[in-house]
UniProtKB/TrEMBL annotation:
It comes from Haliangium ochraceum (strain DSM 14365 / JCM 11303 / SMP-2). This is Homogentisate 12-dioxygenase. Homogentisate binds at residue 340. GO terms for molecular function: homogentisate 1,2-dioxygenase activity; metal ion binding. Belongs to the homogentisate dioxygenase family. GO terms for cellular component: cytoplasm.
Length: 389
């Protein structure tokens, strides 16, 4: 939902006849958000897009998150999960999400696929945002192809039919499923809908699908997720039979290193790193940047008592001055109501620093995050006490 795009062949107005070479009508599909009041895209198909034959044997999908039973009795504590120790699931993206933490607004998972999707997938529960920690490939949709690589965010709108075609090599993604929708921060839009000139990104930073025209991959299976359950369908025709589309609802790629960080006289709060907004959550990007420039500035983040938010951090690359014992792929979870901050010695050691090379994705949530059994299996039990002197 960055701006309106038109691709391929479309008629002069909505809802008027556009004919194929044999005189038959192209079939218009309206893809809408918030009923008819939100962003929308209109696609023109060679065949009817709304014929689905039930296929109970499709066998595609991933498990819904379930709170670990033992978490109900665990003490309140700062947590560190070593997601890098999760093995590759040896499967396709539609099958191999491993949920680690979740609430009613977001599901935070690791995805380690090793093969292409062999069906199309439509998530009817929420928008999907992937951070590509390692790997790359192509997101294939009826709107076209979208290439992505390491250090990209990949956004897939709720309900958008798609499949992933993977590049060779290791794949390691963070998945943020936004059950109440996701978009850019409203404060960075002007009255005309443009990104403002002081926004931390510009329209040119976002990549939209490259339209290919009608494509038939001879794939007829379709998996649809609704209320945490997966349903299988068979299609009579390729769903990529689109000759043109226009609208403002489509997948996009945003490279995390295109985010334009801010530096201040003294330390700025994490909200300045806000990249995407979701219901009940703020998604932030910490990228290499200059640090504070007051002569006595303390660049290290201050101890923080976040009484209303849980903090989730996925560490991607670089040296994290406020933490020890974490590395690429580490996940920290600092629950609300319990103060958190830098490890002993880090606060003082940051004096005089002028630049940081850290790269991390943060998700602040207003509802508590609950761990799954998969998260508990990769937890670092020493993390909470590592903050003691």
């Amino acid at each position: 939902m960055i701006e309106r795009i038109v691709a391929g062949e479309v008629p002069a107005k909505h809802h008027i006849a556009m004919r194929q070479g044999d005189g038959s009508l192209y079939v218009e599909e309206c893809f809408t958000r918030r009923g008819f009041d939100g962003p929308y895209t209109i696609l023109y198909h060679q065949n009817r897009p709304h014929t689905h034959r039930v296929a109970a044997d499709l066998g595609r999908g991933f498990a819904a998150p379930v709170r670990a039973q033992s978490d109900l009795e665990r003490p309140l504590a700062k947590r560190h999960y070593r997601s890098q120790t999760l093995s590759s699931a040896g499967d396709m993206p539609v099958n191999c999400r491993t949920p680690l933490l979740f609430n009613r607004d977001v599901v935070l998972s690791i995805v380690r696929p090793d093969r292409d999707d062999d069906v199309y997938f439509s998530n009817g529960d929420g928008d999907d945002l992937y951070y590509i920690h390692e790997g790359g490939g192509t997101l294939r949709t009826p709107l076209g192809d979208l290439a992505f690589s390491a250090r990209d965010y990949v956004f897939v709108p709720k309900g958008m039919l798609h499949r992933f075609v993977l590049d060779a090599g290791s794949q390691y993604w963070l998945s943020i499923e936004c059950l109440g929708g996701m978009g850019l921060l409203a404060q960075w839009r002007n009255d005309a809908g443009q990104l403002t000139m002081d926004a931390p990104y510009c329209h040119r930073d976002f990549r939209a699908p490259s339209f290919r025209g009608p494509v038939d991959e001879n794939i007829r299976g379709c998996a649809v997720k609704r209320e945490g359950r997966f349903f299988g369908f068979r299609l009579d025709h390729s769903p990529l039979d689109v000759v043109g589309w226009d609208g403002a609802c489509y997948p996009f790629v945003f490279p995390i290193l295109a985010f334009q960080p801010r530096a201040g006289l003294v330390h700025l709060p994490p909200t300045w790193h806000g990249t995407f907004a979701a219901r009940g959550a703020l998604i932030c990007s910490f990228v290499p940047r200059m640090l504070d420039f007051h002569p006595d500035a303390i660049p290290c983040p201050y101890p923080h008592h976040s009484v209303d938010c849980d903090e989730f951090l996925f560490y991607c690359h670089g040296n994290f001055s406020s933490r020890r014992g974490v590395g690429a792929g580490s996940i920290s979870h600092h629950p609300s109501a319990l103060p958190h901050g830098p490890h002993p010695g880090a606060y003082e050691a940051s004096l005089g620093e002028r630049r940081t090379e850290e790269l991390a994705v943060m998700v602040d949530t207003f509802e508590s995050l609950h761990p799954t059994e998969a998260a508990l299996a990769i937890e670092d039990p020493e993390y909470h006490d590592s903050f003691l002197p």
